[in-house]
Amino acid sequence: MLCTSLPCDAASPSCLYAAASVSGGRACAVNIHRGPAICAASRSFLSPPNPRPPLPPRAPMASPNPQCPDCGVGGHLLEVGGAALTCPRYSPGNPDTPGQLPQVQVTVPAGSMGGKRLSKLLSHVRRLPHKYHLLGGSDLKAEPDEQCELKSVEQEEDVIPLPAKEASRLSEEDLIKYLHVDPNSGLSECAVLQRRIKHGWNEFHMDSGEPIWRKYLGQFTNPLILLLLGSALVSVITKEYEDAVSITVAILIVVTVAFVQEYRSEKSLEELNKLVPPECNCVRDGKLQHLLARELVPGDLVCLTVGDRVPADVRLIETTDLLVDESSFTGETEPCSKSHGAVDEASGITTLSNIVFMGTLVRYGKGKGLVIGVGEKSQFGEVFKMMQAEETPKTPLQKSMDRLGKQLSLFSFGIIGIIMLIGWLMGKPLLGMFTIGVSLAVAAIPEGLPIVVTVTLALGVMRMAKKRVIVKKLPIVETLGCCNVICSDKTGTLTANEMTATKMVTSDGFHAEVTGVGYDGKGSVSLLPSNEELREFSNVSIGKLVEAGCVANNAVIQKNELMGQPTEGALLVLAMKMGLGDARESYVRKREIPFSSEQRWMAVKCVDKTEKLEDIYFMKGAFEEVIQYCTTYNSSGMPQPLTPQQKSTYLQEEKSMGIQGLRVLALASGSELGKLMFLGLVGIIDPPRSGVSEAVQILLESGVSVKMITGDALETAQAIGRSIGLFNGHLKAISGDELDQLSETALPDIVTKVSVFYRTSPKHKLKIIKALQQTGAIVGMTGDGVNDAVALKSADIGVAMGKTGTDVSKEAADMILVDDDFSTIILGVEPVDKDAIKQPPRNAKEPILSKALLLKIFVSAAIIISGTLFVFWKEIPDGKVTPRTTTMTFTCFVFFDMFNALSCRSLTKTIFEIGFFKNRMFWLSVFGSILGQMAVIYIPPLQKVFLTQNLHALDLLFLTGLSSSVFLVSELIKFCEQQCCRKKPVKALEEEI
User: Fold this and answer.
1) Which residues are designated catalytic?
2) TM spans, by residue (predicted)?
3) What total number of domains does the chain contain?
4) Which of 64, 124, 546, 661 has the largest count of CB atoms under 10 Å?
5) Domain shared by 477 and 563, yes or no
6) How far is Cα 890 from Cα 947, in angstroms, rounded to an integer?
7) How far apart are CA 407 and CA 226, in angstroms?
8) How do 313-325 and 336-338 pair as beta strands?
9) How far apart are CA 823 and CA 698, in angstroms?
10) Beta bridge mates, 324
11) Pairing state between β 361-373 and 44-47
12) Domain range for residue 928?
């Protein structure tokens, strides 16, 4: 049977006497099939003519408002978006042959998608070869399936996708009622088709990208490039073809390099689409079906099991020990325990325990739930829409170059105007003066500037690549030097994304501290406060505690890679650091009681391989659950009765560790499950990466504000913030919900003062970035998850992690840290000046040619022009220009440029401070320029081209001494500035960059 659905605004049910059923109301279904058809108004069935003879012919009806003799409904039978569908069999003046398929006429308004679908559908109806007649009441009893289908169509109402928070608060009964679905049999096919018309497919729709040629031409919209194009055109008009060719070549080089660097497919949205699984398990019409995930609609009943990727936003109605990895959504790797009960109050979208989100992964257990959001109406859809709406901002360098291009354009027009005015006052021809003015304006435009900028940025990209940093766009290198605020995700960026045990407290009062990060087993366990290093069972209480955590464990570590739960991996590594190896090898596991969200503990029943003693249980889990199974506590290997005072002490220890941001596990062992011996507590956390704290301090000292944005709880956020130097008593942490309550005017001021943001969603991260940019800050964002992608794209510079980062985040970012090393960010500075990190970031609002820089340019230009004119005057005593005059003047100008470049290596430091021969690339360029100049002077073929002649050694010595004056004066000015403006030294970066 072919079945489709279409919207209907008809006020009353009507019929289509053509092997079709049309149900009135707000949603109608038209069923075309080769079996019985239903008249929705009269509740009669239409079938092929085999069982009964055809109906007798009916006379045409002359009434202006004809009625169907079977259903009694008159007028229009169906209206779709303003189009009228009539039954011509009973319309005046349209007699029809009995049993023949009626000719249906539809008027479709322009642009009506529903009308187009209906028109196509009815054209198919006309081609059906069958003849139909009306069935009697006896036949109705034989068609229960059709009656049920009709009933479901009649009762179908609009279903609006539920927001996750609202769905989480509904009880199971209210949810089922709202979604109009049977919790056992799911939706019917008819209901599915109607809802798909309303809500569309469960997928993301991407706009087609610009063609390559348009992206290439877009590079020419830069104001400076347009100005250079105008200069090339003027050069052609004035027959200065050499200048036109050189300017055009320069433009093509710059544009092509920029295009090659920046052109890439917009893959971030494509990668996001990949998180929607291709298939899923869904119950429809009472049958479990394996469907394409894109076919899901709100209200579908979805079944989830281990390894499934959630196909849509689902409100759970049934769970069994369900653990879901939401790292792709929240950035937090620890699997979340899920339940199906209603949630009274939730602090954030990430804390909804009865909702599983599209793209997340089922790690353990199974569940069943109802779809509440599909496609762009899901939480991932919100991220998708935000990424589509966000445009990558221009970099500060691009903005400065645009301003410079406009300023040069005004300057050029000013020159032309002044020259023409002077010529007009002197009585000169205006056309000739215009030509002179244009020539001077073209000469004033620095056609080499775009090439110099491009080459400089390309060198920066190469240097960053040596530091294992991939820079996607050339201007980003300069943006890094302007960045004055860095917002960073916590998990996987500031932290190693590797859960690590850091603290232990035994039942008999021993405290131990654990060092080392990662799953390689490097680190040690030290007894406090003596700092005695512990190995194996040198301390019996700590040894037994570590052994229990290793045995009650299902994780595996191979080649420093964890396979299993991060928390269990931390306990295995703890045993490795104690020298216990894999303690599970000493026992034979006989039984396992798995973890569940209700009991919040797991236990294993084992027997010792060597001693063959009685069975022993090892249990780990939440303290308040584990302690209920304990009757004794361990005291140096001996059980002692567990008193209420002891329980109170352990509870205080557990709370103290929780305040420090640690995830606390309690461990116990014993021969009977209800009479276990309490062993102690282990605190686990995802610690900061090595070098992060030092990098943060260097950034803070250099004037860069660092902010941490995480989806974690307040305690964890504060613990990490304190450990890396972000959080102190004077700074306040703000949650995502608190951000939502701030007004638009108060938000920028608040986010500027706060350094730690917790319980945040992608929407909150975007709001923080936008608020900081409103204050004029140049904002960098670092992250690794899908939840960071929108912020990475909207920030002035987005930095993604190379190893742990998702494909979505890496495609949305401008820079990728291949080694996931946060400290690499501070290396984007000029390598010849290791003290550059002391300086505050460049003010992005300042023009490229600042007043101080212009003053130095004018001083250098005055010296170069004066020296060059002096040589030219000295070499034409008779007023005639000779080859020697040309050679001396040309060589003098080239030497001046070499010495000026040597001085320009730093605007503030002298050549002796930055190192005379440290920049090898510079000296190779200088050596190549000198060789080229010597070739022009001494090689005969080149002498003819450039009109030069041989110079003596004394001539070269004289020119070298004269041209060095620009270098000496510039260095003297720097020295004087340092003496007058000496500042207190700031701690410098220790490692040479």
Assistant:
1) 489
2) 220-238, 244-260, 408-427, 433-462, 853-873, 885-902, 922-939, 951-973
3) 6
4) 546
5) no
6) 10
7) 13
8) antiparallel
9) 10
10) 336, 362
11) unpaired
12) 851-980
